[in-house]
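Open question from group meeting: does this chain pack into something compact, or does most of it stay loose? Before anyone orders reagents, we agreed to write out a predicted structure and look at it together. Recording both the input and the output here so the notebook holds the full record.
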Amino acid sequence: MYRNLLIVAIAFLGFQKGQAQTSFKPGLRGGFSFSTISETRSSYKTDFYVGAFGEINITKIYGLQPEITYSRQGSNNVGYYFNDNTQTEIVKFRDLQLGYLSFTLLNKLTFGPGIQIQFGPAVDVLVNDNLDKVEMYNDLALISGIAYRLPSGLTFEARLKKGILDVFDSSYYNDRNDYLFGSYNTNVNFQLGLSYAFGGKK
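Structure tokens returned:
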């Protein structure tokens, strides 16, 4: 009987300790966005992202971070586009812009004093753009990155966000003379910035 009571007591104390490790902190994030659209003759577009998050620390090592972020993406100097009216290809260098509201569920693994490995999925909703023809108004993306968090709650972060869905009509924005230009055009986005979780050190 005493053995059973001891087992129950140890389990209860372990549960209480696990509960004590769990915490929630709101925060803000923002920084520079460097993006392009895959399989296009174009250059990277420099812009910004800004958002908010909730940091859920489940243990000292593992945490979840739901995020809502506005990200300006796209690609600069897209070299060709196809004119439906005249049925001709026109040489035109144009900067394409896509603004997404991104909903992310980030997994975070923390090692050492503050080194983090970040990864997770995102659902992006297109809220503004300058495309003549849009192939897909939403996007799915995978995110991976690294970060370094200070005890104050300030974090330096670098991420790669890779879209999965085709984002524009390749029969319209297309150069048929360039074999490098394909019909599967996805978002590629690098983010370099800062985040801050209110509440400071745990």
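Observations to bring back to the group:
The longest helix spans residues 2-21.
The radius of gyration is 22 Å.
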